[in-house]
Amino acid sequence: MLDIHVALIPDGNRRWAKQRNLAPWIGHQEGAKAFGKILEKAFEMELKYLTLWGASWDNLTKRSKREVNFLFKVFGESFEKALNDKRLEENQVQVNVLGEWKKILPVKAQQIIKNLIEKTKNNQKFFLTFLIGYNGDKEMIDCINKIADLAYNSKSKIKVDENLISQNLWTGFLPPVDLIIRTGSEKDPHNSAGFMMWKTIYSQFYFTKTYFPALTPREFEKAINNFLSRERRTGK
Asked: Which of the following is catalytic: 13, 58, 59, 149?
């Protein structure tokens, strides 16, 4: 068992498509296919925690309607496929979907996701998390508002500490992220939208030149092995 938490930021779908004179949404379709292969490698490596940033809130509200609708289609088809994927039960994988997806995804896609979460909720060996309609800054604002409401309604003074913050985060039940892999960003290594800001305070980063649709299981494994060979520093 590889008891680490890897977060994958799948950057470069549209740039991959542009290089091939294809519509941007074709990149999203191929990215979904690439993730299927990555997931198989994660099972093979017995990676306990894998989190995929499927789409930010900005991705789903600021891009063209045609591209967003195609993303909705990809999500619906992908989660429906996962609902019938025997590997999730065979590998005892718990699936969670976090973010503001209930505010924006079509009703049918929402129901498929709810069914998948319900079906896998008792699995405890591996944890597969998708972030959809997710911004880290929006997660933190929501957390602060929840704590503010708690303080307002409390009859006694409350203490704000690490535990209270984690209890009110969307991602609070997840362990800290050990490694962030961001594809297609070797020449522009950066974070976006405060990605999992509370859970990544001591994360290591791995940036690839490869765009996400071209990311192979072999390169994914290489990134993890690179992380495992590093000496981690956590301020101690």
From this structure: 59
